[in-house]
Specification:
The complex is a heterodimer of chains A (about 400) and B (about 240). In chain A, helix 3 packs antiparallel against helix 4 and helix 11 runs parallel beside helix 16. Chain A is an alpha+beta fold. The two termini of chain A are about 35 Å apart. Chain B is α/β, with parallel strands linked by helices and about 240 residues long. Chain B folds into 2 domains: about 100 residues, Beta Polymerase, domain 2; about 70 residues. Chain B contains 7 helices and 6 strands. Chain B is elongated and about 80 Å long. Classes of the chains: A alpha+beta (about 400), B alpha/beta (about 240).
């Protein structure tokens, strides 16, 4: 009987024994279909997987440790690098937690909240575009990739316009945003809204009804509702198993309760159900974006007027002594946050993204613990891969949609 | 070194969870490792079906030093609509642990605890009793130390760092800014050390050449004595060096 040794000295991959026709096969960490640096050590009998053991940690960058050693407002720069496909969601969750600790969570201006919602829904679409494109490539459907990435590109242009960077805009701040939306942003946004529907029609036509994709995905990697809960699944994977848990509905934040949207669910729990749930989620995200777009024509405050947390406007610094002092204090030693701990969750593209933030009253966080949805989602591979074909491993990893910046942090 | 950024003594909390303001994010329970599994099992029976996360916190000066934090969520375990899910209750279990104290594993209750506990072990060094696969998960298996502990150094030892004088910036060199003060003294010391090493190896090379072990070995020190070379003053004016 070949075994993957419960290793104490070295990686499990060192042990490759085969006495009864089973074979230990290491997949990755350089395999292109693993969507990053994932290694899966599989034990196979013929073509059937009898054991799968994902090995992670190849992209560990110590982000949680770095965040402890930066000012409260600086930490978001590294935190955005966790889930690099939807950086704004990470920053939003972290800032919501900090605002709760500061006790200012009720004072965030409405326009700031609308823009936060807008950008996190755009992130959701952009992130699902990557999943859709690369997931299609895994199965040989190359064309969809270009359609999906083109749409994502337009959304990244919006991020670039808002915060100055395409991938990690670092646009949010405690109490609101770094600046208002620039001129011309709303026209670009209208362009994205207009192109979305025909583009999704094309994508669905290419992929959703494609008999090859259906053959590869239907009844692959089935996860029942009860197991999904026990294994800590959230987001599209949990909803594909039939449980309509969505943080935006259950614990609304940033004014999500003001918008109308549905939570798409399926009951099959297989890879195809996850595929459909994510596609429907993109449509729901666009529904929210359309509602927010209508509100954005009214100008308003995009940052709290309390300059204890947010630097005063640049123009006032040369004119007001007070503004200069506040600016200097914020830049040189940041603000302090009252001691305490808080858990805050948001609905990221991959599920419940949570931050457990502890402050000891200092100007740096004492601890920033991420609840990484990708890590829990990936862990279930140990269960769903059993009894499946080795060739379907690629389908299952794709349907779990892990992002390794977040799994390994 | 105290600086303007160091908070005044007494202004920070050693145990922030004890002084937290009321924030309605979860029900909070505090348990000892002995009572942990019984508490978790009871909570699971009450309907907290999902283990959202396990995290660790190092409070350094507090007694007990660590907290292992369990976040639980009450989700329905069968197909259910938004109405059925509602606003599920959250509970947070804080388990105080000391160095070298072990925590019983929760893998038997929730399979999701597997990797989460491995990560707490990996980054804080808190062991979980009866865990099926207690090895490092993020760091390499042969890593020494536990990076998220507060006493873990942020940088490597000084001897392993590349010497990098603070004034040797491009702009300073271009402007011909001479080195001054402590930085200059530190650089002088580094250069002297490096030079005496060089001299030593050169002297050794010369000795071996004389005894004929390595006839081809070059003698870089030449006729200058090692002492003279080591004592040659170092010119720190970057302009002259350029």
């Amino acid at each position: 009987m070949s075994t993957i040794a419960p290793s104490t000295a070295g990686y499990a991959v060192d042990v490759v024994e085969s006495t009864d026709g089973r074979m230990v096969l290491s997949m990755g960490p350089q395999h292109p279909s693993t969507h990053g640096v994932l290694q899966v050590i599989t034990e196979i009998e013929g073509e059937i997987v009898t054991k799968a053991s994902p090995e992670i940690g190849y992209l560990h960058t110590g982000i949680e440790k770095s965040a402890e050693n930066l000012f409260w407002s600086q930490a978001s720069t590294v935190i955005e690098r966790m889930d690099y496909l939807s950086p704004l969601t990470n920053a939003l969750c972290y800032y919501l937690a900090v605002e709760k600790l500061l006790g200012i969570d009720g004072q965030i201006p409405e326009r700031a909240q609308q823009i936060r919602v807008l950008l996190s829904e755009l992130s959701r679409i952009a992130s699902h575009c990557v999943w859709l494109g690369t997931g299609g490539i895994d199965l040989g459907a190359l064309t969809g990739f270009f359609y999906a990435f083109d749409l994502r590109e337009r959304i990244l242009d919006l991020f670039e316009a808002s915060g100055g960077a395409r991938m990690h805009p670092n646009y949010l701040r405690v109490g609101g945003l770094a600046q208002d939306l620039p001129k011309g942003f709303l026209d670009k946004l209208d362009g994205v809204i207009a192109m979305y529907e025909p583009r999704m029609r094309d994508l669905r036509g290419l992929l959703q009804k494609n008999p090859i994709l259906q053959d590869r995905m239907i009844d692959v990697g089935i996860l029942e509702a009860e197991d999904a809960v026990a294994w800590g699944m959230t987001g599209p994977i949990l909803r594909a198993a039939g449980i309509a848990y969505d943080v935006r509905k259950a614990f609304p934040y940033s004014g999500y309760d003001r918008y109308e949207f549905d939570v798409p669910t399926r009951t099959e729990g297989d890879a195809y159900a996850r595929f459909l749930v994510r596609l429907d989620e993109m449509d729901e995200a666009m529904r929210i974006i359309r509602q927010v777009r209508k509100e954005l024509d009214t100008p308003g405050n995009w940052q709290m007027t309390d300059t204890k947390f947010a630097p005063p406007p640049k123009e006032t610094i040369a004119l007001s002594m007070e503004a200069l002092i506040h600016h200097f204090k914020l830049v040189s030693e940041s603000f302090r946050v009252p001691a305490g701990d808080v858990y805050q969750a948001v609905e990221g593209p991959r599920g419940e993204l949570g931050y457990y933030v502890v402050s000891n009253g200092d100007n740096r966080p004492w601890r920033v613990r991420t609840r990484p949805p990708s890590m829990y989602n990936l862990q279930v591979l140990k269960k769903i891969a059993l009894g499946e074909l080795i060739a379907d491993m690629v389908v299952m990893i794709g349907s779990l949609d892990p992002v390794f910046g977040e799994v390994d942090r | 070194m105290p600086s303007s950024q160091t908070p005044p003594p007494g202004s920070t909390a050693v145990d922030p969870t004890a002084v937290r303001p009321t924030i309605a994010d979860a029900r909070i329970l505090r348990v000892t490792p002995d009572a942990l599994i019984a508490t978790l099992r009871e909570l699971k029976a009450q309907g907290f079906s999902q283990l959202t996360d396990i995290g660790g916190v190092d409070y350094l000066e507090r007694e007990p030093r660590f907290d292992v934090v369990y976040h639980l969520l009450a989700l329905p375990t069968r197909e259910s609509s938004i109405g059925d899910v509602g606003a599920p209750a959250r509970v947070r279990v804080l388990c105080g642990v000391d160095v070298d104290q072990e925590v019983p594993t929760a893998v038997a209750l929730w399979p999701a605890a597997d990797w989460a506990e491995r990560e707490v072990f990996d980054l804080f060094g808190i062991r979980f009793q009866d865990h099926p696969d207690m090895r490092r998960i993020q760091m390499p298996d042969d890593w020494e130390g536990y990076p998220l502990r507060k006493d873990y150094p942020l940088r490597g030892p000084a001897s392993e760092r590349t010497p990098r004088p603070s004034f040797a910036l491009k702009s300073n060199v271009a402007a011909g800014t001479p080195a001054s003060g402590r930085a200059a003294a530190a650089l002088q010391k580094q250069l002297l050390e490096a030079r005496s090493r060089e001299v030593k190896t050169a002297a050794e090379a010369g000795r071996t050449a004389q005894t004929g072990v390595h006839p081809g070995a070059s003698v870089t020190a030449g006729d200058a004595s090692a002492k003279e070379l080591a004592e040659r003053p170092v010119n720190l004016n970057t302009k002259d060096n350029a």
